[in-house]
Please model this.
Amino acid sequence: MSATTSSLPVAVGTVTSYAFWGDDGRALADFYAAALGWKATQEYPDENGVPTAFLVTDGTTTFVFYTARDFTAPDWPKDELPFHLDLAFDDVETAEQRLLGLGATKPAHQPGGDNWTVLMDPSGQPFCISARWQES
Model:
């Protein structure tokens, strides 16, 4: 029996957090907390008691940033990305300058034209910034 024709009740789930790996989870948590105006709320230790997971939230959405011992940043744009973040701001130019001041870098490759700007977070992973979407 396929999943679409199963007689089992449909399980409805919710996403509770989004997790990201990097070479320094604390640095990523601090960067994204500052970038979004959110708060770093909790940290979790590994089996040796060393904090390796750090939570950042606005009260409704939670990001978890992990310190991964063997993390290697993608060689973007050569490497495909399993996922990335798109962040929207009212003033994209001001946001870009602020993010660069927080430790982001701007790669030469910018495939978004006037639609979005690609930046690299402190771990070397790309994310995009753009203007907030306006409903028409």
Summary: The mean pLDDT is 92.
